[in-house]
Amino acid sequence: MKKSVLILFFLVVLIQNSGCSSKASDELVFIEGGNFVNTHSSFYGETTEIADFYIGKQEVTQREWSAVMGQNPSEFKGDTRPVESVSWYEAIEYCNKRSEKEGKELYYNINKEQVDSDNTNEFDDVKWLVTINQDADGYRLPTEAEWEYAAGGGQKSKSYLYSGSGIAEEVGWYWRNSGKDLLSGDWSWPAISANNSSTKAVGSCKPNELGLYDMSGNVREWCFDWYGEGDANSSSSRVTKGGGWIGDVSCLEPSFRGKFEANGKGSDQGLRICRNAD
């Protein structure tokens, strides 16, 4: 009898500790699709409907980035801090390399030898041609609409102004609260610098309605989309969302649209991964 119990115990332990896929899925949150419920969203009242998908519970950390890419470009070092100072191109490379490492189908086709003729940004000296495998199960960047839908609480939204609260300091790090003291007055780089402001460990603030952290503040997050799609500058910059430790409070609103050339890097620029629902 004792022998049977011991064997059963070891079987349970073995099951609990086997399989990389279970660990990877724990880092992602399932997002039920639908129309936008958050009344503050720029998509509210439109016919835009989001399909089910998975998105990172937190921003990609320096530990996660280093494990895949073999180096850490971040200015503010710390395993549990978000990776930053990464370009859009590096972000999609990370998605593909992580997919490959975990045996998933690559979402992106990256052609480094062919220039993207649609990319009109004069400061972008990379301009890789990037296409997608739409049904692949690999990691990818969220679209702007997916990002805003998740940040706004999805179908569980309570229509907060920021991601998870009507009070910015409860859910996000930005220029006023990302240093040793709480700053006041107008935005001021000298004041920010003197305040030792920086990124913070992911998940340090309250999550939103879906259990997602730091979608307001900490670092700006790359989206796949071109900024201003449909106008003359649609292929100039990529969309960034969420604001960051150096940004103003208005940038923390999920509806805020930021932009950056795809080869741009900054100590407030990171990413969050997602993937298609099975």
List the helices and strands and how they pair.
Elements: H1 2-16, H2 20-26, E1 28-31, E2 34-35, E3 49-50, E4 53-56, H3 62-69, H4 88-101, E5 108-115, E6 128-132, H5 144-151, H6 168-171, H7 189-194, E7 220-226, E8 238-241, E9 258-260, E10 269-270, E11 274-276
Parallel strand pairs: 7-10
Antiparallel strand pairs: 1-4, 2-3, 4-11, 5-6, 7-8, 8-9
Structure, described:
Strands 9-8-7-10 form a four-stranded mixed beta sheet. A three-stranded antiparallel beta sheet has the order 1-4-11. The chain has a two-stranded antiparallel sheet with strand order 2-3. Residues 1-25 have low confidence and may be disordered. With 278 residues, the chain is α+β, with helices and mostly antiparallel strands. 22% of the residues lie in helices and 16% in strands. The longest helix has 15 residues, at 2-16. The protein contains seven helices and eleven strands. It has a single domain (25-276), classed as paralog of FGE (formylglycine-generating enzyme), CATH 3.90.1580.
